[in-house]
Amino acid sequence: MQKTSWAAVGIAIFSGMVAAAAIGKVPPALPAMRDQLGLTMVEAGWVMSTFATLGGCCALFFGGASARVGELRLALLGLAMMVFGALLGAFAQSYTLLLLSRVLEGSGFIAVVVTLPSLITRSTAPRDYRLTLGLWSIYLPFGSSVAMLTAPFLLPSLGWRGLWLVLAGATLACATLLYRMRQRFVAPANAPSGPASDVILETLRSPGAWCLTAAFFTYTLQWFTLMVWLPSFLVDHRGLSVSLAGALTAGVVAANVPGNIVGGWLVHRDIRRGTLICGTSLFMLACAFGIFDERLPDALRYGLCLLFTSVGGILPAAAFSGLTAHAPSPRHIGAVNGLLVQGSNLGQFIGPPAIAAAVTAGGGDWRAATGLMAGAAVAGVAAGLLLLVIERTPPDTRSAPAGHAVAEGGGSNC
Protein backbone atom coordinates (compact mmCIF):
# COMPACT_ATOMS: atom_id res chain seq x y z
CA MET A 1 0.00 0.00 0.00
CA GLN A 2 1.33 3.44 -0.96
CA LYS A 3 2.32 5.66 1.95
CA THR A 4 2.13 9.44 1.99
CA SER A 5 5.52 11.15 1.87
CA TRP A 6 4.80 14.02 4.21
CA ALA A 7 8.27 15.48 3.60
CA ALA A 8 7.54 15.77 -0.13
CA VAL A 9 4.07 17.16 0.54
CA GLY A 10 5.54 19.68 2.97
CA ILE A 11 8.19 20.87 0.50
CA ALA A 12 5.56 21.30 -2.23
CA ILE A 13 3.29 23.33 0.06
CA PHE A 14 6.23 25.38 1.33
CA SER A 15 7.26 26.13 -2.26
CA GLY A 16 3.74 27.40 -2.92
CA MET A 17 3.96 29.63 0.16
CA VAL A 18 7.25 31.16 -0.98
CA ALA A 19 5.79 31.71 -4.44
CA ALA A 20 2.77 33.43 -2.88
CA ALA A 21 5.11 35.80 -1.01
CA ALA A 22 5.72 37.43 -4.40
CA ILE A 23 2.14 38.72 -4.14
CA GLY A 24 2.33 39.87 -0.52
CA LYS A 25 5.68 41.66 -0.93
CA VAL A 26 4.28 44.37 -3.21
CA PRO A 27 1.71 46.32 -1.11
CA PRO A 28 4.14 47.27 1.73
CA ALA A 29 6.89 48.12 -0.78
CA LEU A 30 4.72 50.08 -3.22
CA PRO A 31 5.20 53.56 -1.64
CA ALA A 32 9.00 53.23 -1.87
CA MET A 33 8.79 51.85 -5.42
CA ARG A 34 6.58 54.74 -6.51
CA ASP A 35 8.97 57.23 -4.95
CA GLN A 36 12.14 55.77 -6.53
CA LEU A 37 10.74 55.03 -9.98
CA GLY A 38 8.18 57.83 -10.19
CA LEU A 39 5.25 55.48 -10.80
CA THR A 40 1.79 56.89 -11.39
CA MET A 41 -1.26 55.41 -9.66
CA VAL A 42 -2.20 53.58 -12.86
CA GLU A 43 1.30 52.15 -13.27
CA ALA A 44 1.35 51.06 -9.63
CA GLY A 45 -2.02 49.41 -10.17
CA TRP A 46 -0.65 47.34 -13.04
CA VAL A 47 2.32 46.28 -10.95
CA MET A 48 -0.19 45.06 -8.35
CA SER A 49 -2.61 43.35 -10.73
CA THR A 50 -0.16 41.59 -13.08
CA PHE A 51 -0.48 38.21 -11.36
CA ALA A 52 -4.29 38.28 -11.36
CA THR A 53 -4.39 39.34 -15.02
CA LEU A 54 -2.06 36.53 -16.09
CA GLY A 55 -3.87 33.97 -13.96
CA GLY A 56 -7.27 35.03 -15.28
CA CYS A 57 -6.07 34.59 -18.87
CA CYS A 58 -3.58 31.74 -18.88
CA ALA A 59 -3.92 29.38 -15.89
CA LEU A 60 -5.93 26.73 -17.75
CA PHE A 61 -3.39 26.66 -20.58
CA PHE A 62 -0.51 26.27 -18.13
CA GLY A 63 -2.40 23.38 -16.55
CA GLY A 64 -2.93 21.73 -19.92
CA ALA A 65 0.70 22.24 -20.87
CA SER A 66 1.84 20.54 -17.66
CA ALA A 67 0.42 17.24 -18.90
CA ARG A 68 2.64 17.49 -21.97
CA VAL A 69 5.78 19.10 -20.53
CA GLY A 70 5.68 17.26 -17.21
CA GLU A 71 4.49 18.71 -13.92
CA LEU A 72 7.88 18.63 -12.19
CA ARG A 73 9.66 20.23 -15.14
CA LEU A 74 7.05 22.98 -15.36
CA ALA A 75 7.14 23.60 -11.60
CA LEU A 76 10.95 23.94 -11.65
CA LEU A 77 10.76 26.16 -14.73
CA GLY A 78 8.17 28.31 -12.98
CA LEU A 79 10.36 28.72 -9.89
CA ALA A 80 13.32 29.62 -12.13
CA MET A 81 11.19 32.24 -13.88
CA MET A 82 10.24 33.69 -10.51
CA VAL A 83 13.92 33.88 -9.49
CA PHE A 84 14.93 35.67 -12.70
CA GLY A 85 11.87 37.92 -12.51
CA ALA A 86 12.72 38.95 -8.94
CA LEU A 87 16.34 39.62 -9.93
CA LEU A 88 15.25 41.73 -12.88
CA GLY A 89 12.87 43.65 -10.65
CA ALA A 90 15.53 44.23 -8.01
CA PHE A 91 17.75 46.02 -10.55
CA ALA A 92 14.98 47.68 -12.58
CA GLN A 93 15.43 51.42 -13.10
CA SER A 94 12.25 52.02 -15.10
CA TYR A 95 8.58 51.15 -15.03
CA THR A 96 8.94 49.09 -18.22
CA LEU A 97 11.57 46.78 -16.73
CA LEU A 98 9.67 46.55 -13.44
CA LEU A 99 6.47 45.55 -15.24
CA LEU A 100 8.40 43.04 -17.36
CA SER A 101 9.83 41.55 -14.18
CA ARG A 102 6.33 41.17 -12.75
CA VAL A 103 5.12 39.47 -15.94
CA LEU A 104 8.03 37.02 -15.67
CA GLU A 105 7.35 36.43 -11.96
CA GLY A 106 3.62 36.12 -12.56
CA SER A 107 4.03 33.59 -15.37
CA GLY A 108 6.32 31.55 -13.14
CA PHE A 109 3.85 31.80 -10.27
CA ILE A 110 0.98 30.44 -12.39
CA ALA A 111 3.20 27.58 -13.61
CA VAL A 112 4.09 26.71 -10.01
CA VAL A 113 0.62 26.80 -8.48
CA VAL A 114 -1.10 24.81 -11.23
CA THR A 115 1.47 22.00 -11.13
CA LEU A 116 2.29 21.53 -7.44
CA PRO A 117 -1.07 19.89 -6.56
CA SER A 118 -0.35 17.21 -9.17
CA LEU A 119 3.03 16.59 -7.55
CA ILE A 120 1.36 16.42 -4.14
CA THR A 121 -0.97 13.66 -5.33
CA ARG A 122 1.98 11.64 -6.63
CA SER A 123 3.54 11.58 -3.17
CA THR A 124 0.23 10.97 -1.37
CA ALA A 125 -1.63 7.75 -0.64
CA PRO A 126 -5.13 7.82 -2.18
CA ARG A 127 -6.74 7.78 1.26
CA ASP A 128 -4.99 11.09 2.04
CA TYR A 129 -5.76 12.95 -1.23
CA ARG A 130 -8.45 15.17 0.24
CA LEU A 131 -6.37 16.00 3.32
CA THR A 132 -3.17 16.96 1.48
CA LEU A 133 -4.98 18.91 -1.24
CA GLY A 134 -7.03 20.67 1.43
CA LEU A 135 -3.81 21.60 3.23
CA TRP A 136 -2.42 22.91 -0.07
CA SER A 137 -5.01 25.70 0.11
CA ILE A 138 -2.99 27.45 2.85
CA TYR A 139 -0.21 28.37 0.41
CA LEU A 140 -1.70 31.70 -0.72
CA PRO A 141 -2.97 33.26 2.53
CA PHE A 142 0.00 32.03 4.55
CA GLY A 143 2.70 33.05 2.07
CA SER A 144 1.19 36.43 1.21
CA SER A 145 0.32 37.35 4.80
CA VAL A 146 3.80 36.46 6.10
CA ALA A 147 5.29 38.70 3.39
CA MET A 148 2.88 41.51 4.26
CA LEU A 149 3.63 41.25 7.98
CA THR A 150 7.41 40.96 7.76
CA ALA A 151 8.07 43.39 4.91
CA PRO A 152 7.53 46.55 7.03
CA PHE A 153 10.29 45.36 9.38
CA LEU A 154 12.69 44.41 6.56
CA LEU A 155 12.18 47.38 4.28
CA PRO A 156 13.94 49.99 6.46
CA SER A 157 17.19 47.99 6.40
CA LEU A 158 16.97 46.12 3.09
CA GLY A 159 14.90 48.43 0.94
CA TRP A 160 12.42 47.00 -1.54
CA ARG A 161 15.22 45.86 -3.85
CA GLY A 162 16.84 43.92 -1.02
CA LEU A 163 13.50 42.32 -0.20
CA TRP A 164 13.21 41.18 -3.84
CA LEU A 165 16.70 39.60 -3.61
CA VAL A 166 15.89 37.79 -0.36
CA LEU A 167 12.76 36.25 -1.87
CA ALA A 168 14.69 35.33 -5.03
CA GLY A 169 17.08 33.38 -2.82
CA ALA A 170 14.22 31.69 -0.96
CA THR A 171 12.60 30.73 -4.28
CA LEU A 172 15.87 29.27 -5.55
CA ALA A 173 16.16 27.23 -2.34
CA CYS A 174 12.65 25.84 -2.92
CA ALA A 175 13.56 24.83 -6.46
CA THR A 176 16.64 23.03 -5.12
CA LEU A 177 14.62 21.17 -2.47
CA LEU A 178 11.94 20.23 -4.99
CA TYR A 179 14.55 18.87 -7.39
CA ARG A 180 16.25 16.85 -4.64
CA MET A 181 12.87 15.25 -3.84
CA ARG A 182 12.20 14.47 -7.52
CA GLN A 183 12.04 10.72 -6.93
CA ARG A 184 8.91 11.30 -4.82
CA PHE A 185 7.20 13.04 -7.73
CA VAL A 186 7.79 10.55 -10.53
CA ALA A 187 4.84 10.05 -12.89
CA PRO A 188 3.45 6.50 -13.29
CA ALA A 189 5.36 4.52 -15.92
CA ASN A 190 2.20 3.84 -17.92
CA ALA A 191 0.95 7.45 -17.84
CA PRO A 192 -0.67 8.28 -21.22
CA SER A 193 0.52 11.20 -23.32
CA GLY A 194 -1.18 13.41 -25.84
CA PRO A 195 -1.63 17.00 -27.00
CA ALA A 196 -2.24 19.63 -24.35
CA SER A 197 -5.31 20.75 -26.29
CA ASP A 198 -6.94 17.34 -25.71
CA VAL A 199 -6.32 17.61 -21.98
CA ILE A 200 -7.88 21.08 -21.88
CA LEU A 201 -10.94 20.06 -23.90
CA GLU A 202 -11.53 16.95 -21.80
CA THR A 203 -11.21 19.04 -18.63
CA LEU A 204 -13.76 21.53 -19.93
CA ARG A 205 -16.23 18.66 -20.32
CA SER A 206 -16.09 17.89 -16.59
CA PRO A 207 -19.17 19.46 -14.93
CA GLY A 208 -17.68 19.00 -11.48
CA ALA A 209 -14.61 21.01 -12.45
CA TRP A 210 -16.88 23.86 -13.56
CA CYS A 211 -18.77 23.76 -10.25
CA LEU A 212 -15.54 23.90 -8.26
CA THR A 213 -14.35 26.78 -10.44
CA ALA A 214 -17.60 28.71 -10.01
CA ALA A 215 -17.48 28.25 -6.24
CA PHE A 216 -13.86 29.40 -6.12
CA PHE A 217 -14.69 32.41 -8.31
CA THR A 218 -17.49 33.56 -6.01
CA TYR A 219 -15.32 33.04 -2.93
CA THR A 220 -12.34 34.94 -4.31
CA LEU A 221 -14.50 37.78 -5.54
CA GLN A 222 -15.72 38.33 -1.97
CA TRP A 223 -12.51 37.55 -0.07
CA PHE A 224 -10.01 39.39 -2.25
CA THR A 225 -12.27 42.41 -2.57
CA LEU A 226 -12.41 42.77 1.20
CA MET A 227 -8.62 42.39 1.46
CA VAL A 228 -8.02 45.05 -1.23
CA TRP A 229 -10.38 47.70 0.12
CA LEU A 230 -10.06 47.13 3.87
CA PRO A 231 -6.85 49.23 4.23
CA SER A 232 -8.39 52.16 2.34
CA PHE A 233 -11.57 51.91 4.39
CA LEU A 234 -9.64 51.88 7.68
CA VAL A 235 -7.52 54.88 6.67
CA ASP A 236 -10.19 57.01 4.93
CA HIS A 237 -13.23 56.25 7.10
CA ARG A 238 -11.72 55.30 10.46
CA GLY A 239 -8.67 57.55 10.49
CA LEU A 240 -6.11 54.83 11.19
CA SER A 241 -2.48 55.12 10.15
CA VAL A 242 -1.34 53.33 7.01
CA SER A 243 0.92 50.99 9.00
CA LEU A 244 -1.82 50.04 11.46
CA ALA A 245 -4.34 49.52 8.66
CA GLY A 246 -1.82 47.30 6.87
CA ALA A 247 -1.17 45.25 9.99
CA LEU A 248 -4.90 44.76 10.64
CA THR A 249 -5.43 43.70 7.03
CA ALA A 250 -2.52 41.25 7.19
CA GLY A 251 -4.13 39.79 10.31
CA VAL A 252 -7.36 39.25 8.40
CA VAL A 253 -5.44 37.55 5.57
CA ALA A 254 -3.60 35.30 8.05
CA ALA A 255 -6.90 34.32 9.69
CA ASN A 256 -7.70 32.47 6.46
CA VAL A 257 -5.10 29.80 7.26
CA PRO A 258 -6.94 28.09 10.18
CA GLY A 259 -10.01 27.81 7.97
CA ASN A 260 -7.96 26.16 5.24
CA ILE A 261 -6.62 23.61 7.72
CA VAL A 262 -10.07 22.92 9.21
CA GLY A 263 -11.49 22.58 5.69
CA GLY A 264 -8.87 19.99 4.79
CA TRP A 265 -9.69 18.04 7.95
CA LEU A 266 -13.45 18.22 7.30
CA VAL A 267 -13.23 16.84 3.75
CA HIS A 268 -10.86 14.16 5.04
CA ARG A 269 -13.61 13.25 7.54
CA ASP A 270 -16.05 12.68 4.66
CA ILE A 271 -18.00 15.93 4.92
CA ARG A 272 -19.29 16.57 1.42
CA ARG A 273 -17.62 19.33 -0.57
CA GLY A 274 -20.95 20.73 -1.74
CA THR A 275 -22.20 20.98 1.84
CA LEU A 276 -19.06 22.86 2.90
CA ILE A 277 -19.30 25.24 -0.06
CA CYS A 278 -22.96 26.03 0.65
CA GLY A 279 -22.43 26.52 4.38
CA THR A 280 -19.32 28.65 3.94
CA SER A 281 -20.98 30.89 1.34
CA LEU A 282 -23.97 31.53 3.60
CA PHE A 283 -21.72 32.29 6.59
CA MET A 284 -19.65 34.76 4.57
CA LEU A 285 -22.83 36.48 3.45
CA ALA A 286 -24.03 36.89 7.05
CA CYS A 287 -20.65 38.33 8.05
CA ALA A 288 -20.62 40.73 5.10
CA PHE A 289 -23.90 42.33 6.19
CA GLY A 290 -22.37 43.03 9.62
CA ILE A 291 -19.02 44.22 8.26
CA PHE A 292 -20.67 46.97 6.21
CA ASP A 293 -23.23 47.94 8.88
CA GLU A 294 -22.04 51.26 10.35
CA ARG A 295 -24.39 50.91 13.31
CA LEU A 296 -22.15 48.20 14.77
CA PRO A 297 -19.03 49.06 16.83
CA ASP A 298 -15.72 48.91 14.99
CA ALA A 299 -14.32 46.13 17.19
CA LEU A 300 -17.26 43.89 16.35
CA ARG A 301 -16.97 44.67 12.65
CA TYR A 302 -13.28 43.78 12.67
CA GLY A 303 -14.15 40.56 14.50
CA LEU A 304 -16.61 39.79 11.72
CA CYS A 305 -13.80 40.37 9.18
CA LEU A 306 -11.74 37.76 11.01
CA LEU A 307 -14.66 35.32 11.04
CA PHE A 308 -15.42 36.09 7.38
CA THR A 309 -11.94 35.08 6.27
CA SER A 310 -11.37 32.30 8.81
CA VAL A 311 -14.56 30.36 8.14
CA GLY A 312 -14.35 31.34 4.49
CA GLY A 313 -11.03 29.50 4.30
CA ILE A 314 -12.94 26.23 4.40
CA LEU A 315 -14.18 26.79 0.84
CA PRO A 316 -10.84 26.75 -1.04
CA ALA A 317 -9.82 23.64 0.92
CA ALA A 318 -13.06 21.96 -0.19
CA ALA A 319 -12.50 23.07 -3.79
CA PHE A 320 -8.89 21.88 -3.99
CA SER A 321 -9.86 18.55 -2.44
CA GLY A 322 -12.03 17.92 -5.50
CA LEU A 323 -9.15 18.01 -7.98
CA THR A 324 -8.67 14.26 -8.00
CA ALA A 325 -12.40 13.52 -7.95
CA HIS A 326 -13.22 15.63 -11.01
CA ALA A 327 -10.09 15.12 -13.09
CA PRO A 328 -10.86 12.63 -15.89
CA SER A 329 -7.43 11.05 -15.26
CA PRO A 330 -4.27 11.83 -13.26
CA ARG A 331 -2.77 13.76 -16.18
CA HIS A 332 -5.79 16.11 -16.08
CA ILE A 333 -5.22 17.25 -12.49
CA GLY A 334 -3.03 20.16 -13.60
CA ALA A 335 -5.66 21.35 -16.08
CA VAL A 336 -8.50 21.09 -13.54
CA ASN A 337 -6.36 23.02 -11.07
CA GLY A 338 -5.57 25.54 -13.82
CA LEU A 339 -9.30 26.05 -14.34
CA LEU A 340 -9.78 26.66 -10.60
CA VAL A 341 -6.85 29.09 -10.49
CA GLN A 342 -8.22 30.91 -13.54
CA GLY A 343 -11.62 31.27 -11.87
CA SER A 344 -9.94 32.50 -8.69
CA ASN A 345 -7.95 35.13 -10.54
CA LEU A 346 -10.99 36.30 -12.49
CA GLY A 347 -12.67 36.88 -9.14
CA GLN A 348 -9.65 38.92 -8.02
CA PHE A 349 -9.73 40.89 -11.27
CA ILE A 350 -13.47 41.63 -11.29
CA GLY A 351 -14.28 42.05 -7.61
CA PRO A 352 -12.37 45.22 -6.52
CA PRO A 353 -13.51 47.48 -9.40
CA ALA A 354 -17.07 46.13 -9.17
CA ILE A 355 -17.25 46.97 -5.47
CA ALA A 356 -15.70 50.38 -6.13
CA ALA A 357 -18.35 51.08 -8.76
CA ALA A 358 -21.15 49.98 -6.40
CA VAL A 359 -19.89 52.14 -3.52
CA THR A 360 -19.41 55.12 -5.83
CA ALA A 361 -22.92 54.72 -7.22
CA GLY A 362 -24.19 54.58 -3.64
CA GLY A 363 -22.66 57.95 -2.85
CA GLY A 364 -19.72 56.52 -0.91
CA ASP A 365 -21.90 54.34 1.32
CA TRP A 366 -20.09 51.03 1.85
CA ARG A 367 -23.38 49.27 2.53
CA ALA A 368 -23.86 49.35 -1.24
CA ALA A 369 -21.18 46.66 -1.41
CA THR A 370 -23.45 44.10 0.23
CA GLY A 371 -25.51 43.69 -2.94
CA LEU A 372 -22.56 42.37 -4.92
CA MET A 373 -21.35 40.27 -1.99
CA ALA A 374 -24.82 38.78 -1.61
CA GLY A 375 -25.02 37.94 -5.30
CA ALA A 376 -21.64 36.19 -5.17
CA ALA A 377 -22.62 34.26 -2.04
CA VAL A 378 -25.89 33.07 -3.57
CA ALA A 379 -24.01 31.95 -6.69
CA GLY A 380 -21.61 30.06 -4.42
CA VAL A 381 -24.53 28.28 -2.76
CA ALA A 382 -25.90 27.35 -6.19
CA ALA A 383 -22.51 25.93 -7.22
CA GLY A 384 -22.36 23.90 -4.00
CA LEU A 385 -25.86 22.49 -4.50
CA LEU A 386 -25.10 21.50 -8.09
CA LEU A 387 -21.87 19.86 -6.94
CA LEU A 388 -23.85 17.79 -4.42
CA VAL A 389 -26.00 16.51 -7.28
CA ILE A 390 -23.00 15.78 -9.52
CA GLU A 391 -21.11 13.92 -6.80
CA ARG A 392 -24.06 11.58 -6.32
CA THR A 393 -23.68 10.60 -9.98
CA PRO A 394 -21.39 7.64 -10.78
CA PRO A 395 -17.95 8.90 -11.95
CA ASP A 396 -18.11 7.16 -15.33
CA THR A 397 -21.19 9.20 -16.30
CA ARG A 398 -19.89 12.61 -15.26
CA SER A 399 -16.30 12.75 -16.55
CA ALA A 400 -14.99 13.34 -20.04
CA PRO A 401 -13.32 10.07 -21.07
CA ALA A 402 -15.68 7.61 -19.41
CA GLY A 403 -14.35 5.59 -16.55
CA HIS A 404 -11.11 7.51 -16.02
CA ALA A 405 -11.93 9.73 -13.06
CA VAL A 406 -9.21 9.69 -10.44
CA ALA A 407 -10.20 7.60 -7.44
CA GLU A 408 -10.26 9.12 -4.00
CA GLY A 409 -9.49 7.03 -0.99
CA GLY A 410 -11.30 6.45 2.20
CA GLY A 411 -14.67 8.07 1.83
CA SER A 412 -18.00 8.45 0.12
CA ASN A 413 -17.61 11.94 -1.26
CA CYS A 414 -18.20 10.80 -4.77
Summarize the entry for a quick read:
By secondary structure, this protein is an all-alpha fold. The protein contains 17 helices and no strands.
Question: Could you explain how this protein is built, in words?
Answer:
The chain crosses the membrane at residues 44-62, 74-93, 99-121, 133-155, 161-179, 209-230, 242-267, 274-293, 299-323, 335-359, 371-390. It comes from Aromatoleum aromaticum (strain DSM 19018 / LMG 30748 / EbN1). This protein is mostly helical. It has a single domain, classed as Up-down Bundle (Growth Hormone, Chain: A), CATH 1.20.1250. 78% of the residues lie in helices and 0% in strands. The protein has 17 helices and no strands. It has helices spanning 6-24, 26-37, 41-69, 71-90, 95-122, 129-136, 139-180, 196-204, 207-238, 242-254, 256-268, 273-291, 298-312, 314-321, 323-326, 333-361, 369-390. Helix 4 crosses helix 7, helix 5 packs across helix 16 and helix 9 (207-238) runs antiparallel to helix 10 (242-254). The longest helix has 42 residues, at 139-180. The chain is globular and about 55 Å long. The two termini are 22 Å apart.
